[in-house]
Amino acid sequence: MKTPKAILAPDLTFVKDPVLKTVFENFFLLLEEMNTNFYDDLTLKVSVLPINTVAPSVRNGKNFITANTAGTAYTNFQDWQDGQEIIIICGDVNTSIADSAPFKLSAAWAPNVDDVLKLVCKSGVFYEVSRSAN
Length: 134
What we know:
2 domains; 25% strand
């Protein structure tokens, strides 16, 4: 299961207005107290899933891209958290996900490059929220 990580406040030396700088500092302190890393969501970081791994970790992430070099059918995702949304951008022609446990999909996903699948996790089951063919 995913564990919350610490918030790393950005470098605010470029903020010249002392009042605005204080507001930003207090904002990131509040997020740290809540122990929720909203800053990652603001940066929209995209992580590459481990290449040719059928059960990759989705720890500390939301947005992922595939880069498989051989046929790779995902069978599960590791280190998930209840309620976690996962967006997978297909970056290759070798990735697939079957509509079978632990995935609840509208149909098997055999994407083309740039296709996207959005899932949400509940108790280790990954439910399809949406998909797009790009």
